[in-house]
Specification:
This protein is mainly alpha-helical and 473 residues long. Helix content is 74%, strand content 0%.
Length: 473
């Protein structure tokens, strides 16, 4: 269910990235390309046996407007990360995540009506609201995993859950491309993905529980085991006091925040703008665009799943520390994509080489799942929701800025302009990774135990109160 939550969240988050290539004109269709404006590939070429279909676009939005539409999701996403994490740590991740996904699904369904009836300004507001709804997604999921997954299993189970994001990317690109091609309408992706989100929510609210102690179907033996090896506080048993000062002054937390900024910049640049590059520079059709833009995420998902098992095997061998493993796999997830996207920008109009470079480079980013994505659980299981919210809030500022910066950097959508975009992303990925190597950690931080002490103190006080009441009797 966690895997499906992230898959649906990412489908609803990024299906617009592909749909907008069929909603609005790209600038190179309106501007005559010459030497001063830069290079685009010949439009007559195709990939494989697929053919191109030229049609008029419904909206006349320039690149800057499209960048605002694509980035507006992250404006809202930034705002609710912190409240979402605090709610998840205090009241549990089930309702926090479920209610957010309900609002996101409804917003996705009404996207076509809003775009057609009220214009780009209203669509920007709607996307901001969808971002607000999805802000608690990662913090709430992290809090649930912290209560259910032992450290020895975080690699493979964390990979299984968080790899849902890559599957969502693939579905939004590949399934979205087929839906638009064979329904001959960009609206179909929003209706299909929104309705599926509502369907999934029914099972989420029936099957999911915040803590093993609350689950009515698992055995007492399993509950005892999970309480012993994980030792997290049940959020429904009492309100936690979050150690803000300790978190704010923690070097490992800042190391995680910094590398998250770099990762999000690289990932969101590719997710939101790769379809536009495929169409405006390499001249792919919508079906080609959907299929080939989704390839990096298929490989990323496979790499994430495989590296999750490798991480757990390395931990079980006891030859490697958690810190060493996390830093190694985060480095692969930073250097690999940096090299891949730069290589793609120098592939010219060789479509096979460009797609291969993107696929291999972004595929290696899959190693971030059993490293960067579970590092918040390493540092503080009890405050995993809040910690993931802090990291996500600051990190996803990249998602707000990157699409807008790209829109400014590629006014003519030429190959040279896009090359600058990819060089910038590569530099950010490498620089932030170096800082994580310096300050990052995989060890539980001392302030995590504050929650356990609060919980035990509360139990003792309750027992004393009960004793004092019964003593006169």
């Amino acid at each position: 269910m966690g895997f499906m939550a992230l898959a649906i969240g990412y489908v609803q988050r990024f299906c617009l990235s592909l749909a907008i290539t069929e909603m609005a004109e790209q600038s190179h269709h309106r501007v005559h390309q010459n030497a001063s404006l830069g290079t685009v590939c010949p439009g007559s070429r195709s990939f494989g046996n697929m053919t191109h279909f030229k049609k008029e676009m419904e909206f006349d939005w320039d690149e800057k407007t499209q960048g605002l539409v694509l980035s507006s999701f992250f404006w809202g996403y930034v705002i609710t990360q912190m409240p979402g994490g605090m709610l998840a740590d205090t009241y549990g991740g089930k309702a926090t995540l479920g209610l957010g996904m309900l609002l996101s699904s409804i917003g996705t369904i009404i996207t076509p009506v809003v775009a057609r009836s009220y214009g780009p300004e209203a669509l920007i507001i709607l996307r901001l609201i969808i971002g607000l709804a999805q802000g608690p997604l990662y913090p709430a999921m992290s809090r649930l995993l912290a209560s259910w997954v032992p450290v020895e299993e975080r690699g493979r189970l964390g990979s299984l859950v968080f790899a849902g994001a890559q599957v969502g990317n693939v579905a939004s690109m590949q399934l979205g491309g087929f839906l638009m091609r064979y329904t001959d309408s960009w609206t179909s992706v929003f209706y299909a993905f929104g309705v599926f989100g509502i369907f999934w929510l029914v099972f989420w609210f029936v099957l999911i529980y915040n803590h093993p102690n609350r689950h009515p179907f698992i055995s007492q033996r399993e509950k005892n085991y999970l309480n012993r090896v994980i030792n997290t506080v049940d959020p429904e048993d009492g309100k936690l006091s979050i150690p803000w000062k300790s978190i704010a002054t923690s070097a490992p937390v800042w190391g995680l925040i910094i590398v998250q900024i770099g990762h999000d910049w690289g990932l969101f640049t590719i997710i939101t703008d790769l379809p536009k590059y495929m169409k405006s520079v390499l001249k792919f059709s919508v079906v080609e665009n959907g299929l080939l833009s989704g390839l990096p995420y298929i490989v990323m998902w496979l790499v994430a799943m495989g590296s999750g098992f490798i991480v757990d095997s390395m931990l079980s061998s006891q030859y490697f520390t958690v810190t060493c493993i996390r830093k190694t796999f985060v480095t692969i997830a930073s250097v690999g994509p940096a090299l891949g996207i730069v290589a793609a920008s120098y592939s010219g109009c060789d479509k096979v080489l460009a797609v291969t470079s993107f696929t291999v480079g972004m595929g290696l980013m899959g190693t971030f799942v059993p490293s960067l994505k579970v590092n918040a659980l390493d540092l503080s299981p009890n405050y995993a929701g809040t910690l993931m919210a802090i990291v996500g809030t600051i990190g996803c500022l990249s998602g707000v800025i990157a699409p807008y910066i790209v829109g400014i950097m590629v006014p003519n959508s030429s190959m040279e302009e896009w090359r600058d975009v990819f060089w910038l992303s590569a530099a950010i990925l490498i620089a932030t990774n170096l800082l994580f190597l310096q300050y990052g950690s995989g060890n539980v931080q001392p302030w995590n135990e504050k929650a356990n002490r609060q919980y035990k103190s509360s139990d003792i006080n309750n027992e004393n109160n009960t004793t004092s009441i019964l003593k006169p009797l």
